[in-house]
Amino acid sequence: MTHSLPDISLDTQAHIHTPINWVGMDNIDLPLYLIKAHDNEKSALPVLVCFQVDIGNAKTKGIHMSRLYQLLGELAAVQPLTADTLLATLHKAISQQQEAYASQARLILRFNLLLQRPALLSNNLGGWKSYPVQLHAQLSPVGFKLSAEVKVGYSSTCPCSAALARQLLAEHFKKSFASHTHCKVEQVAHWLQLHGSFATPHSQRSQATVKVELVQNCADFGLVTLINLIEETLATPLQTAVKRIDEQEFARLNGQNLMFVEDAARRIQHALTGRYSDFSVSVRHLESLHAHDALASIEQATTRDLSI
User: What distance in Å separates the CA atoms of residue 97 and residue 87, rounded to the nearest whole number?
Assistant: First the structure.
């Protein structure tokens, strides 16, 4: 005997008549596939998904969340994940929630992208680095928008601290050689090897969070290209496996790339300009001198027609 099951979402109305901007589900586990731009291999990633639509009808009690969940199952079967498949999923989500007068939908995909990184100088040495990524896909009456946010770790050495350390070192050098009329290069070199760290500038682990609007037809959503651009721009990315020669090179790079948070933000902004239309940059230096962090951010946006 078949019984008709109640559907509270359709059969009842909300007590308070108000449209809802976003409703749906978050932290859904899903395996998705991307194509790596550098080797064209498919790689399954464990992804946490947020999937939402709006409720345009103020009297509608709720949406059918199971329909959203089923769409994610279809999305997981697609290889590889592309902007077109995300757009198609959003279209279906809106069409399947018309009882609620849905007019927009969005997907937020959160995952860690593992990339293999070589040592700075040592041959056949390297390791894996994890980069937190978020992909944002949204479809609304004004059009489809796709963006990516990546977090990249790097090292930063304070220019002010470096200047103060150099001043102390210079004063210590003057005192040490005050009685010398002439100094041989070998003497100075030997003295520097013993006393060059008399005062050292402070460095800290730092993080850049960069969000960019993406073009739709881009392999792996351009994530590897974006991450590489940020690391090359800052010049002091965090390392994986190192030997002494690599650690020495890392110290040299830090010494040649002194930067405040303002410098880091401007460097990234300059590198992104012309490559991406809309973007935001936020950098955080986890200070080793202070108990607080230093922050800087820059946003750049253009106004244009997003209609499909």
Answer: 16
What mean pLDDT comes out for the span 195-208? Answer: 93
Higher per-residue pLDDT: 4 or 94: 94
Q: What are the pLDDT digits (tens) for 61-99?
A: 899 999 999 999 999 998 889 999 999 999 999 999 999
Residue 284 has phi, psi (to 5 degrees) of -135, 125
What are φ and ψ of residue 258, in 5° steps? -65, 135
Whether 41 and 9 have beta carbons less than 8 Å apart is answered as: no
DSSP class of residue 273 equals: B
What does the buried/exposed string (b/e) look like for 106-144 if buried means 16 or more CB atoms within 10 Å of the residue's CB? bbbbbbebebeeebbeeeeebeebebebbbbbbbeeeeb
Superfamily (CATH) of domain 8-158+202-300: Urate Oxidase; (3.10.270.10)
8 φ/ψ angles, rounded to the nearest 5 degrees: -60, -35
- Can you name the residues that pair with 48 across neighbouring β-strands? 29, 110
Sorted by where each begins, the domain ranges of the chain are 8-158+202-300, 159-176+186-201
| 213 bridge partner residues | 147
C-alpha distances in Å from residue 259, one per residue of 159, 207, 231, 239, 286: 6, 13, 14, 18, 13
